[in-house]
Amino acid sequence: MTERGSDKVNPRVDEELQRETDSLERGAPAPSRAEEHRQAEAPADGEPAPDVRPDIEDAEGRTELARHLRPSSFPADRDTLLATARDENAPETVVRLLEQLPDQRQFETPQDVWDAVREASGR
Predict the structure, then answer these.
(1) Quick one: which of 115, 105, 99, 107 has its CA closest to 75?
(2) Per residue in 56-81, pLDDT tens?
């Protein structure tokens, strides 16, 4: 067995080995997706591009609304939801959202309420 003066093989192989071990050294459990064959394909002609960014405002609004509506109050109409929200000391912003709901409609879940609120606000 002969000793080499260096651990280096050649610059190209060294760079490839570095890329392969980089994610492991930095704590990632899987290799990074830097290789071209692992990249997501672009949408085909005429297909819409996926929206990968979540709508933070929607998520926060939906959470705030659901937080002030007891699950036991469903199914419910607008007046019942308003009474529940007021009993739960909901902020005025939640009460105003609930006031936008249609009068004669039954809501089965908080998601139904959120969908109706979004519809009423034109979003």
Answers:
(1) 107
(2) 467 787 888 888 898 888 999 999 99
Alpha-carbon Rg for the chain in angstroms: 27
User: What span, in angstroms and rounded, lies between the C-alpha atoms of 4 and 9?
Assistant: 10
CA separation for the pair 42, 123 (Å, rounded): 27
Q: Report phi then psi at 107, rounded to 5.
A: -115, 130
Residue 76 backbone phi and psi in degrees, to 5: -150, 155
Nearest CA to 31 out of 21, 40, 41, 39 is that of 21
Distance (Å, rounded) from C-alpha 70 to C-alpha 88? 8
Q: Would you say the pTM of this structure is higher than 0.85?
A: no
